[in-house]
Amino acid sequence: MVSLLCTLATGGCVTASSGTMAPPRVAVLGTDAGATLYGRDAKQVFDNPTLRTKIRALFGTDWNSTSESFLSSPIPAYFAQSSAPTELRIDNARWIAVRGCVPAACARRHGLLLIGPGGERLLARIDDGGFTREYGHGPRMVTLRPQDQAVVDAASRALGAVAAGPGLGPHS
User: Fold this and answer.
1) What is the mean pLDDT of residues 94-116?
2) Cα–Cα separations (whole angstroms), residue 103 to 7, 56, 147
3) Where are the domains positioned within the chain?
């Protein structure tokens, strides 16, 4: 209970994937200079001074531990192998997507981080062999809203249709 309150107090939240809303429009724009604003791969993005604290808050205790999440690994493992960030247009806003996976298990164990305009909102999805968790962090965000879940799911589907780099394969 204490960790749940701490996670909510920092603006992060977690929920299981629902997929009940109509998906937003997602266009994959590519890996140009705008996509690498925060780094060229997941490690650089996670260590970026602008995002570091927000990303840790996004994932909460799941960042370093699996004791409460039922995930098989701490979050960084799902991005150990990553592609270059990709710029997306989700409805009318530009987002940056970072995809990664657990080496030797990319088809089943992968992650997606979405960075909203200005880096204020973060959304994420971790797929762990059939178990999916979605995360959200941002101003005035107390729970992951259905529209946020729809954004994460639509982005995952759109990126799954595009080759993201060696070994990353399609994510659904």
Assistant:
1) 96
2) 29, 22, 31
3) 2-160
**Nearest CA-CA partner of 29 in 72, 107, 92, 76:** 92
Beta bridge partners of 86: 97
The two structure tokens encoding residue 37 = 């604003």
Measured CA to CA, the distance from residue 118 to residue 164 in angstroms comes to 23
What CATH number was assigned to the domain covering residues 2-160? 3.40.1420
Bigger pLDDT: 68 vs 96: 96
pLDDT at 7 over 70: no
Distance, in Å, from the CA atom of 87 to the CA atom of 74, rounded to the nearest integer, reads 26
- Note the helical H segments in the chain: 2-9, 42-47, 52-59, 146-160
**Total residue count of the chain as it appears in this document:** 172
Alpha-carbon span 109 to 111, nearest angstrom: 7
Cβ-contact 69, 133 below 8 angstroms: yes
